[in-house]
Amino acid sequence: MALLRTIDFDPKSDYLWFVGDLVNRGPRNLETLAWVCEHDARVTSVLGNHDLHLIRRHLGLSNEKASDTLDDVLLAPERDRLIDWLRRRPLIHDSGRHVLLHAGILPAWDLATAARLARKAEKQLREDPEPLFNKPQNSAASRPVGKVLTPREIARILTRVRCCGSPENADLNYSGPPEAAPGSIKPWFTFPEVLRLDRVFVFGHWAQMGCRITPHAFCLDGGCVYGGSLSAIRLDDDRLFQQENLDN
């Protein structure tokens, strides 16, 4: 709310994009999810890995993790309505100039491929979500892009990737700063294949990289949950706004 006051958000004329992880990154998940859902007509929000974890917990397909802060949502009378709203969010949104997503894409994907795969995973989540959360026999980190990816593998790439070892292979484990990435892996958005797509990617997920703005990539995760800042960028002129964690 402090950040929205800083940017002078007007629900009658402004639109908000959220990079995902609306929940499980702070203590007031129910209020956050309810507010975003209430402003649905002015909001585009993509799914993050923690949003998917909430859906998985709601469906009884995952146990509670030590770091979970989801009880306020899971115990709320309106939980079914809110989580159903969450299940209908996209994994990727392409406006023609900007691409909104939680984590990243495989550099080998063109935008049409990324959109097609995202729709495949979204359909699975809406219609029959259990296979989306079942562990595959093969890892998406090493599966060639020419092979058929399962909806679960697609969702994991779009909500978890930070680095890739090649255009076809994602590393879904490394979470440290880009400068310390081991071996030959490097940030997905630095590959020439991504730079040639002529889009600006807007994403979060990478707290240890921090908020970083480049001509082709806006990473907005300032690590607020860890005591850093919450960030917003005005897409009309690329002006960055930040709100420090109020618990510091």
What secondary-structure arrangement, pairings included, does this model have?
Elements: H1 2-6, E1 16-18, H2 29-38, E2 43-45, H3 49-58, H4 71-74, H5 79-87, E3 92-94, E4 98-101, H6 111-127, H7 130-133, H8 151-160, E5 163-166, E6 169-171, E7 186-187, H9 192-195, E8 200-203, E9 212-213, E10 217-219, E11 229-234, E12 239-244
Parallel strand pairs: 1-2, 4-8, 8-10
Antiparallel strand pairs: 3-4, 5-6, 5-7, 9-10, 11-12
Structure description:
By secondary structure, the protein is an alpha/beta fold. The protein has one domain (2-244): Purple Acid Phosphatase, chain A, domain 2 (4-Layer Sandwich). The protein has helices at residues 2-6, 29-38, 49-58, 71-74, 79-87, 111-127, 130-133, 151-160, 192-195, and strands at 16-18, 43-45, 92-94, 98-101, 163-166, 169-171, 186-187, 200-203, 212-213, 217-219, 229-234, 239-244. A hairpin with a 2-residue loop joins strand 5 (163-166) and strand 6. Helix 6 packs across helix 8 (151-160). The longest helix has 17 residues, at 111-127. The model has no long low-confidence stretch (mean pLDDT 93).
Key descriptive features of the protein:
Purple Acid Phosphatase, chain A, domain 2, 17% strand, 29% helix, alpha/beta, globular, 12 strands, 9 helices, 248 residues
Quick description:
By secondary structure, this protein is α/β, with parallel strands linked by helices.
Total beta strands: 12
The largest sheet has its strands arranged as 3-4-8-10-9
pLDDT below 50 for ≥5 consecutive residues: which ranges?
none
Query: Element order, helices and strands?
Result: HEHEHHHEEHHHEEEHEEEEE
Q: What portion of residues is helical?
A: 25-40%
Question: How many helical stretches?
Answer: 9
What global shape is seen? globular
Task: Give the CATH level 1 class.
Answer: Alpha Beta
CATH level-4 homologous superfamily: Metallo-dependent phosphatases
Largest sheet: 5 strands, mixed
Distance between the termini: 16 Å
CA radius of gyration? 17 Å
**CATH fold-type name:** Purple Acid Phosphatase, chain A, domain 2
What would the average pLDDT be, to the nearest integer? 93
Strand content: 15-25%
> How many structural units, i.e. domains?
1
For this structure, the quaternary state is single chain
User: Would you tell me the structural class of the helices and strands?
Assistant: alpha/beta
CATH architecture: 4-Layer Sandwich
